[in-house]
Amino acid sequence: MGKVVSLNISEKRGTEKIQVPSVNVIEKFGIEGDAHAGNWDRQISILPIEALEKVPSDKIEEVKKGGFTENITISGIPLNNLGVDSSIRIGEVVIKILYIGKDKYKECGRPYIVSREGRFGIVVKGGKINVGDPVEVI
């Protein structure tokens, strides 16, 4: 079983997100107060911290120093268990993963890895998520 390492939101797209201790997640919408929430197929973004192992050595410091661009940072779940069409439970929330990465890769900062290994999906069941909550593949 994994856990939530960080929760992050932003009011505007394309900006770094700020860390918060908890979030309210709305079914079929996303995280309340986050710019990416809405009626579409990338309502929420998740970065498994294990994805940092895939960052080239010449980029790792830049990625680690970059601000958060994902909504939820998790640890303890192998990347291969977080494939497209898998579902995860985070606290009381259920998220279905629809994409891994983005169509166009970013080359700088934390978006470097989020654009390649971030998981993006929709909220199947809403609720509250707190830092430290358990994460499991269902």
Which structural class do the helices and strands define? mainly beta
Tell me the domain tally.
Answer: 1
* Major sheet size, sense and barrel closure: 7 strands, mixed, barrel
Radius of gyration, Cα only, in angstroms? Answer: 13 Å
Distance between the termini: 11 Å
**Tertiary shape:** globular
Runs with pLDDT <50, length 5+? none
Reading the helices and strands in chain order gives: EEEEEHEEEHEEE
Any idea of the CATH class? Mainly Beta
**How many DSSP-defined strands?**
11
CATH superfamily: PK beta-barrel domain-like
**How much helicity do the residues have?**
under 10%
**CATH fold call:** M1 Pyruvate Kinase, Domain 3
Strand content: 35-45%
Q: Compute the average pLDDT.
A: 96
In spatial order, strands of the major sheet run: 1-6-5-9-8-7-11
From the coordinates shown, what is the CATH architecture? Beta Barrel
The helix count comes to 2
